[in-house]
Fold each of these.
Amino acid sequence: MAFSSASYSPSIWRTEARAVIAKVRADNPGVTGPALKKLANAAYPFGPRQYHPYKIWLSELRAQFPKPRPVCKRCGGAGWYDLGGGRGSATCGCLASRAGVARG
Ligand SMILES: [Zn+2]
């Protein structure tokens, strides 16, 4: 027996999670983003949503459906730090300019 493949193989849970998500993708052509994530999550294959298999499932969902980058709610520019409860803080600098900070 030759050790031809020395690469780390993912756990059976992750392998199964990937297979299920791949099937959902194949069964729903044209569906993408949050809608597809919802369908994939509905196809959760491991019984109770707890313990190690569920953690692996969530990890795989996060990996395959990354959160979109936040957009500033004031100017639409890139950068919004969510403080929770509907509050947030712009990181794009538009708050500073609004406060009258004029340079140059
Ligand atoms: Zn802004």
Note: The mean pLDDT is 84.
Amino acid sequence: MSTEGKKLRIGVIGAGSISGLHLEAYKQCSDTVIAAVCDLNEERAKAAAAKYGAEQVYTNYRELLADPSIDAVSICTWNNTHAEISIAALEAGKHVLCEKPMCKTVEEAEKVQEAVRRSGKILQVGFVRRYAGSVDVLKRFIDAGELGEIYYAKASCLRRLGNPGGWFSDSSRSGGGPLIDLGVHIIDLCWYLMGRPKVKSISGNTYRNLGNRANVQNLSFYKAADYDASRNDVEDAANAVIRFENGASLLVDVSFTLHAAKDELYIKLYGDKGGAEVEPALVVMSEKYDTIVNSTPQIDHTSFDASEAFGREIAHFAGSCLGRVETLSPVEDGLEVTRMLSAIYESAAKGTEIHFD
Ligand SMILES: NC(=O)c1ccc[n+]([C@@H]2O[C@H](COP(=O)([O-])OP(=O)(O)OC[C@H]3O[C@@H](n4cnc5c(N)ncnc54)[C@H](O)[C@@H]3O)[C@@H](O)[C@H]2O)c1
């Protein structure tokens, strides 16, 4: 069947902070039309629907899924609802773009994977950093062998003050703190660029020493749509070493609060032929004619640009739904990243290294 000229009718579930980037990207995408918006908060859903021209507004996602004219959904809700809504959407015959993290636990991730296999529908995990233009460029360099064998990567995403409060700091809805919220991105990106090696063992630490530091004044930070600092039972910071079966290793650290001089984001990869930094800006290191060369690709965005990356992620999702391309972030990768995150929490709780089979 030809999909030429067909526009996918999209439902966006969850109309809080991140949904704006999804809605904007669907609006720009020539393959999609925004048909419906759903949020528990009706005013929020109505405002988004009015802004983006969606005909239907729902407060119950099951009603949105019952609409046979909807082809695909974006899930932009709290983490504890991702698995349930993904499975319901797949069973209703919809393609799914699910925000990161794919879900809270390995058990949930396995159920989502089964639902994808049963339904035959696409589920793209919202690992948006994979879709950034700079990462696309670097992936081509890596695939062409410019870095050789990548044996070490390190990534750091430190906020000195940045616990978003609300559901993010309520572990029953988030599944954890900066590790599951920020660590998921940098662990996934390094693992993807390293060629998705098989995990051998993981050692992690989590810390709850500072709290959310809601007392700090005169310094603004990212907050959930329903900001509330009164509840906080997630870690302030975490670190981990992930060892892979091919001998490579990944070192990460993340924080919502830390006595750091400033916020910091870096993602670095080291191979036996060359190296690369994805953040703070793309640079590729090599050795030529007995000389160390740092090359700077000349591209629109050398560091992460949210509207570019979400635009590319959603265009790719639409292309996958229409059978033109394969998703770059399938459910299998969502499951493997969930395994890594869970093992870091488990290692921290037990104080021992976790071995994978
Ligand atoms: N890719 C990224 O870089 C990125 C950035 C921020 C957030 N996120 C992810 O996006 C998701 C949402 O984060 P946010 O910052 O927009 O949070 P938010 O609190 O601003 O918005 C979440 C919205 O979901 C709604 N909601 C919750 N459960 C619902 C349900 N069952 N049905 C309908 N609506 C429901 C809430 O009412 C709220 O409006 C999270 O999973 C988060 O991890 C991803």
Note: Residues 13-19, 38-41, 44, 61, 76-79, 81, 99-100, 126, 128, 166-167, 181, 224-226 surround nicotinamide-adenine-dinucleotide (CB under 6 Å).
